[in-house]
Amino acid sequence: MATGRTHRPATRSRGIPEATVARLPLYLRALTALSERSVPTVSSEELAAAAGVNSAKLRKDFSYLGSYGTRGVGYDVEYLVYQISRELGLTQDWPVVIVGIGNLGAALANYGGFASRGFRVAALIDADPAMAGKPVAGIPVQHSDNLEKIIQDNGVSIGVIATPAGAAQPVCDRLVAAGVTSILNFAPTVLTVPDGVDVRKVDLSIELQILAFHEQRKAGEDAHTDGTGPAAVTREEPTEAAASADQGPDGDVPAVMPA
Amino acid sequence: MATGRTHRPATRSRGIPEATVARLPLYLRALTALSERSVPTVSSEELAAAAGVNSAKLRKDFSYLGSYGTRGVGYDVEYLVYQISRELGLTQDWPVVIVGIGNLGAALANYGGFASRGFRVAALIDADPAMAGKPVAGIPVQHSDNLEKIIQDNGVSIGVIATPAGAAQPVCDRLVAAGVTSILNFAPTVLTVPDGVDVRKVDLSIELQILAFHEQRKAGEDAHTDGTGPAAVTREEPTEAAASADQGPDGDVPAVMPA
DNA sequence: ATGTCTTTGTGAACGCGTGCACAAAGATGG
DNA sequence: CCATCTTTGTGCACGCGTTCACAAAGACAT
Q1: A119 partner at 20 to 30 Å CA-CA among A76, A222, B87, B247?
Q2: pLDDT at site A182
Q3: Contact yes or no for B32 and A93 at CB 8 A
Q4: Beta-carbon neighbour count of residue A45 at 10 Å?
Q5: Is residue B69 in some structural domain?
Q6: Residues of chain B with pLDDT > 90: what percent?
Q7: Chain B residues with CB-CB distance to A15 below 8 A
């Protein structure tokens, strides 16, 4: 759903539905937790509850991977962890670069989930010369002049963009030109990439706006049945054409400091 | 898709499909950019290109809001900005609390996109006493002991959780008990909430794993037709039950420092 | 006023994802 | 070896979302 490409060819890769792929990491996390508690097997019912999904859906998802369960018993936790890891490509080592080491970039660099699952932060890159050499999460930041060389020397195919919105597309272009074929974009912009390159987007502002929509709906349903609703400071309605002036100083401020 | 509730009642709220709601912020961003450039009208084709979607989809989306376009001309930018803002509830003032002021929490607090669109960071909350009083993004961090009072005093209905995984559910419970009905969760955990509370999840690790899947598939298709693929350091295959030991020190490390 | 041209709004078909419900498969006990 | 019980794997139906394709609507020129 968030592949970002305008013309996604319904990538039912080797028969595994996109929706299923999106849930595999969820299952993997639940299974890893069980594995740590040395639980040998789980039923689809239990695992589904742990992952927060329907048990029928889970069984169907697993059926795309093959028949890894035992009827009357359930699934072997260790075996399933391995199969899902392999399916997701996590048995490989994926070097990743993070471009734009502001607040968010630093948070990502410090994110433990990277290292623990086949991902390795190969380099941190920022356009600010003052950042160069400064260690973040134990890794020295490199200047973006060296971006292409870094990509090629490390065989990087996955890039994370955490720059301001304005810098995102140029950075994206350089990443792609240097050989990156998968991009995780945190900048609030639509990225244009050539075919064959995957883009996934994470947008904090959008998530909040969706929440606000539902929140407003809730408040509307309970309308004046309680006084404890949200601070209903409804702004005055603009007269058909004067809305954007008070919309904010800038369309969408980047999630990070200038890179 | 990420509402989080196990049993989502297909919330076709007032006839607006969930998928459409998820795209409205995208349109709004593109429209705001046009508005800043003082563009008076746009066609569905132009706007769709800017938002990265199909033009027919865009028109259908707008049709759920009403007939705001003029045939032969297009849509009035300012008017549409207002209509979408109103539909999303962004003409209201939404006080938001961020719980867990680690790297990620700080990045969120500094995120300009919050303030610019009806969202106001009402408070930053952390469990670490050493953080209390320390200003982050110009706002002093408050201790989580005061969580309930902060929520109620500010009429907060939207909470952002950026704590470690272990702390997320307890924090969530306290937020809900204090009156929060919408939660944006950055912790890598499935949150359980009562009916009527919306949860949206943002999970960096999952996004990366989905990218890795597609990346692996690409590499598999080009299999040994080039040598420049990803660093294909395929780990040795475990003998059916020994996978989780090298899976990483901890199931899923929180995105932030302990709160 | 009339015709042409552009662009919207939407009816209809299609495909994907979800969930039910059940048969098949294997474990387990006697 | 047979009966019973549990749990998987899946056929099927349904609903949502996407896309095509076109008629209706308005602008604009003559």
Answers
A1: A76
A2: 98
A3: no
A4: 13
A5: yes
A6: 75
A7: none
Cβ under 8 Å to B: A residues 94-153: 94-96, 102-104, 106-108, 110-119
Domain boundary among B56, B88, B120: B88
Instruction: Test A29 with B238 for CB contact under 8 angstroms.
Output: no
Q: What is the pLDDT, as a whole number, of residue A222? A: 60
pLDDT band for position A220 (50/70/90)?
A: confident
Q: Which residues of B touch A194 (CB under 8 A)?
A: none
Residues 6+ apart with CB under 8 A from B256: A107, B100, B101, B102, B103, B104, B105, B162, B163, B164, B186
CB-based contact (8 Å) between A37 and chain B? no
Residue with tokens 């990509």: A151
- The structure tokens listed for A232 are 């209903």
B144 has pLDDT over 60: yes
Residue nearest to nucleotide D8 (CA to C1'): A71
| Domains: count for chain A | 2
Cβ neighbours of B39 (radius 10 Å): 13
Q: Residue B125 phi/psi, 5° resolution? A: -130, 135
Strand C close to A2 by CB, under 7 A? no
CA of B140 to C1' of D12 (A): 58
Nearest nt by C1' to A62 Cα: D9
Residue type (1 letter), A228: T
Contacts of A148 (CB under 8 A, 6+ apart): A174, A177, A178
B226 within some domain:
no
Instruction: Between A111 and A234, name the one with better pLDDT.
Output: A111
Q: Is A159 a residue whose pLDDT tops 70?
A: yes
Is the CB of A163 within 7 Å of strand D?
no
Residues 6+ apart with CB under 8 A from B168: B161, B185, B187, B189, B191
pLDDT at A120 over 70: yes
Q: Is A101 annotated as a binding residue?
A: yes
Q: For residue B75, give its domain range.
A: 13-88
Q: Is A97 helix (H, G, I), strand (E, B) or coil?
A: strand
Last residue in a domain, options B63, B88, B113: B88
**A71 CA – C22 C1', rounded, Å:** 14
Contact A214 B198 (CB under 8 A): yes
Touching check for A13 and chain B: CB below 8 Å? yes
Is the residue at B83 inside a domain? yes
- Asked whether residue B194 is assigned to any structural domain, the reply reads yes
The pLDDT of residue B186 is 97
Kindly report, residue by residue over B105-136, the tens digit of the pLDDT. Answer: 999 999 877 777 789 999 999 999 999 999 99
Pick the more confident residue, B115 or B252.
B115
Instruction: Give me the pLDDT at residue A221, please.
Output: 66
Domain of residue A168, CATH code: 3.40.50.720
Residues 60-89 of B with CB under 8 A from A: 76-79, 81-82, 85, 87-89
